[in-house]
Amino acid sequence: MYTRREFLEVNAAAAGAALLLRAKRTELAVGFQTWVVREQLAEDFTGTLARMAGMGYESLELCSPVGYQRYGFGHLAEYSASDLKAVINDAGLLCTSSHYTVAELREDLPARIAFAEAMGYTQMVLAHPGLGADATLDDYKRVCEEMNGWGRITAGEGLQFVYHNHNFEFEKLEGELIYDALLAHLDPEVVKMQFQVWVVIAGYKAADYFRAHPGRFVSAHLSDWSGEEEQAVPVGAGIVDWRDFFEAGVVGGLKNVYVEMEPSTLPGSAAYLKGLRTD
Description:
The structure is a single chain. By secondary structure, this protein is of the alpha/beta class. It has helices at residues 4-26, 38-43, 45-55, 81-90, 102-119, 137-156, 178-185, 206-212, 242-252, 266-275, and strands at 30-33, 59-63, 94-100, 123-126, 160-164, 172-173, 176-177, 191-196, 217-222, 224-225, 232-233, 256-259. The strands form 3 sheets. It has an 8-stranded parallel barrel with strand order 1-2-3-4-5-8-9-12, surrounded by 4 helices. It has a two-stranded antiparallel ribbon with strand order 6-7. A two-stranded antiparallel ribbon has the order 10-11. Helix 4 (81-90) packs across helix 5 (102-119) and helix 8 (206-212) packs parallel to helix 9 (242-252).
């Protein structure tokens, strides 16, 4: 049993913690991953940026013009880093993160770092380990060692190296969950994680990983699931508990979030995320 004074102190502490969580979650800009609108960006770059800002998006995550040239981002190579940054900023958007391919990092990491610095990035994200379905656990461990090396180099330049998962990392290989093996072999001091929320369809919750591995997650890709088959719905319209997600994200270390779903879900997702700030 609490005394009245203890009761008031406990409730005051709880209220303070809730306010802190809310304050921290509202610091996160509502972002989108450019992969989902790559065709629109190729057709009308500045117009698409303006439309996304008009929906309520405040930041974006790019895909490297060099590594993703054949996937629809080659047109961005026409810009210098300073000009590209200016176009994005003029649309009212921020960009502090980009996806990279394993091939371009192996071939010319210094050039990719130089571009990142000129763009004002804080994060460089490896989007895929470059391994096939026949990869062994040792293959994943070798890529982890590469990432640890890249992470030490980028850290020296003031850039955080990040790994982005897909659903296949939440499959078992040689009796071990691939994602858990990655967490065990990546150096948490120099390689952080970008969590793909879509793995909820395989039964894995981002919030659980955030709480289990404090400080290891600087970023996340947001998506929501209807609960049926592989039907994606706008953020807030599915089964993901987003309040729990953001509260756990404070523990996990989230600094950036990016919606990554088909274009039809983007307006509703932005509206929901911005609404979380005021409820």
